[in-house]
Amino acid sequence: MDHYRVKPGDKIDLSEWNPDDHSHYSGSKEDAESEIQSACVQLGLLQQLLAAERKHKVLVILQAMDTGGKDGVVRRVFSETNPQGVRVVSFKVPTAPEADHDYLWRVHQQTPGKGELIVFNRSHYEDVLVVRVHNLVPKNIWSKRYDHINAFEKTLADEGTLILKFYLHISKAEQRQRLLDRLEDPAKNWKFAAGDLKERELWNDYMAAYEDLLNKTSTTYAPWYLIPANHKWYRDFLISKIICSELASLDMKYPQIVEDLSTYRAQLEKESGA
Ligand code: AMP
Ligand code: MG
């Protein structure tokens, strides 16, 4: 898993990262599917512990090009978690009140509280991606945001938030296929947006923006994982395993009940014998 974590000081060149890669799993796709299922169940148990202990906060950030698989990860990886303790937040084009504030304002309101696991489907990173590629603000404004973001995430981390960031790396050819699927399949038509084709034309600009973001904002306290994502099974395999292993390393414990429970037990036992 460490292979896919971007370390501070790395110089990522995305053209060197093969989106078809599945080299760190030697079994078959079927074997991987059953491992993913086990990891999802384990994640469900870890999330229950997270909610019960109410000590840590967990933030998972998903970023990708259109069709990159963010929705697929949400559906699959969190399928065994309890919706009471998990929330997915999708960041769209800012609303008028959001646009009236600084770009972190809407984001900070959605960060996890104690015991919560929050998944960001897109995030504040849009403010150095789409915003940069389309010159929605001038360079002297967006170029300062990498430092803001590192400081913001440091604050969250220092205050008890585990932050895990995943960039789902697909190829342009794979995106073409997935867009065609959305046009072919009536059940997928709704996911197609005409604007996706315009963004696709800016593919190289987006890759440059992603490279900068990976190189400037992968920190020890909020690392990026560069996930090869042409194969959905490999993507889900890596992400489910990484999240489980990071949550397990929090060494969470169920709260200790200090009271003597035997009197309550005796009371209930007496009732059943009545
Ligand atoms: P989707 O995730 O497919 O529903 O699309 C959401 C759209 O909102 C994408 O095109 C994003 O680029 C766009 N978006 C998200 N955040 C921002 C932002 N801060 N500024 C401009 N556009 C954004
Ligand atoms: Mg879309």
Strand-helix topology:
Blueprint (H helix, E strand, L loop, with lengths): L28 H25 L3 E8 L5 H8 L8 E5 L5 H4 L5 H4 L8 E5 L8 H4 L5 H4 L2 H14 L2 E9 L2 H13 L10 H7 L1 H15 L6 E5 L3 H17 L13 H12 L1
Parallel strand pairs: 1-3, 1-4, 2-3, 4-5
The protein binds adenosine monophosphate and magnesium ion.
Adenosine monophosphate binds next to helix 5.
Write up what this structure looks like.
- The protein has about 270 residues and is α/β, with parallel strands linked by helices.
- The chain has a single domain, classed as P-loop containing nucleotide triphosphate hydrolases (Rossmann fold), CATH 3.40.50.
- The chain is built from twelve helices and five strands.
- It has a five-stranded parallel β-sheet with strand order 2-3-1-4-5, sandwiched between helices.
- Helix 1 runs parallel beside helix 11 and helix 2 crosses helix 11.
- It is globular, with a radius of gyration of 21 Å.
- The chain starts with about 30 loop residues before the first helix and ends with a helix.
- Adenosine monophosphate binds next to helix 5.
Short description, anyone?
With 274 residues, this protein is of the alpha/beta class. The protein contains twelve helices and five strands.
Key traits:
single chain; 274 residues; alpha/beta; Rossmann fold; five-stranded parallel sheet; 12 helices; 12% strand; globular; binds adenosine monophosphate; binds magnesium ion
